[in-house]
Amino acid sequence: MATSTPTAPADEPAHSPQSSNGLSPDLRTRHDRDRPRRSMLLHRLDLRGAPYAFIAPFFAVFAAFSFYPLVYTGWISLHRVELATLDLMEWVAFDNYVALWEDERFWNALFNTFTIGVISTVPQLLMALGLAHLLNYRLRGSTFFRVAALTPYATSVGAAALVFTMLFERDFGMINWLLSVVGIDNIDWENNKWAAQTAISTIVIWRWTGYNALLYLAAMQAVPRERYEAAAIDGASRWQQFLKVTIPGIRSTVIFTIVLSTIGATQLFGEPLIFGQGPNGITGGADNQYQTLGLLLYEEGWKNYQMGRAATVAWAMFLVLILVFVIQRVVKRIASRRP
User: Highest taxon of the source (predicted)?
Assistant: First the structure.
């Protein structure tokens, strides 16, 4: 008996074929059309978002340990706060800043910070420049001399300050002994204002000269040798090459070290504190003859227990740095406009 294949009714739609992944042709077409869009979106997100993801940890750490403390210190400076009761703050607005402006200790500390900064920074950078110029030549054991130049920087400030304090001791120090050999009487390095500032500057110079010298050396090695060869062909001496080729070639590094040394001088704290050998270290001597802004901040906060005033000094140091930076930019712009 013959059998016939049943056919679907005319009004009943036939089943659409299924793809291997279970999608109908229309859905598969839409899926294939959306896939490049998603890939392009992910590509753009990766291209534009990856740099922000890489630098996000830095900004997170900066916000937590730098920006927030800065803002919170500014907030504390507008209050009267004592160290024993940090949770009790009395709003005084700008009274702390007015009191600081009228305080002679602040101006004395600012002047001392400026003079110690000049005495330590200028010789330090000049010596570092000369040392880097010598290390830039091919010398035997150049690696040893470079490591030796960096050794003082690796020494802790406490150890360096203690050693130099003994060297500058009035009665039994080696410096006064050497001066007595040439007929100079003993100098009271701690109680004499300029002698104390010179001794503290010597510690700073000893610690940071080698570090700046290596910065200058790295910049000098980046100067193209063709410039020196052209200058030598024109008859320039070594000194003329140094002035006309080396100095202009490392100008940006010199500016960087000046800014870095200015910041370090403004924050100077450990050297004068240890040089005072006791309570006089906090006050910068019996007559505040070498008290810096850092020591004044410490005295207000941890000796007088006035955290609001200490925060005010901290913000004054920050504003001084901003002022120095603005002056440096203005001078640089004026110098660049000269023919």
Answer: Bacteria
- Among the listed residues 168, 257, 160, 145, the one whose alpha carbon sits nearest the alpha carbon of residue 204: 160
Whole-structure pTM value: 0.80
Residue 42 CB partners (closer than 8 Å, separation 6+): none
Between CA 304 and CA 299 the distance in angstroms is 6
Question: Domain boundaries in the chain?
Answer: 105-337
In the structure, what pLDDT confidence band is assigned to residue 11 with cuts at 50, 70 and 90? very low
DSSP assigned state of 65: I
Nearest CA to 94 among 301, 316, 296, 303? 316
Distance CA 23, CA 13 (A): 18
Nearest Cα neighbor of 78 from 259, 311, 244 is 311
Return the CATH superfamily for domain 105-337. Answer: MetI-like (1.10.3720.10)
Beta-carbon count within 10 A of 11 CB? 5
* Contact in structure between 311 and 77 (CB atoms under 8 Å): yes
Instruction: Decide if 203 contacts 161 (C-beta within 8 A).
Output: yes
Average pLDDT over residues 213-239: 89
List the beta bridge partners of residue 90. Answer: 80
Identify the weakest region by mean pLDDT among 23-27, 31-35, 39-43, 230-234.
23-27
Which backbone phi and psi does 7 adopt, to 5 degrees? -110, 150
What is the pLDDT averaged over residues 165-173? 89
> Of 50, 64, 96, nearest to 308 (Cα)?
96
Helix, strand counts (H, E) of the chain = 16, 2
Q: In this structure, what are the phi and psi dihedrals at residue 102, rounded to the nearest 5 degrees?
A: -90, 0
Using DSSP's 3-state secondary structure scheme, residue 79 falls into: strand
Q: What are phi and psi of 278, to 5 degrees?
A: 130, -150
In this prediction, residues 124-137 reach a mean pLDDT of 90
- Quickly state the pLDDT bin for 1 (edges 50, 70, 90): very low
Task: Report the distance separating Cα 177 and Cα 196, nearest Å.
Answer: 17
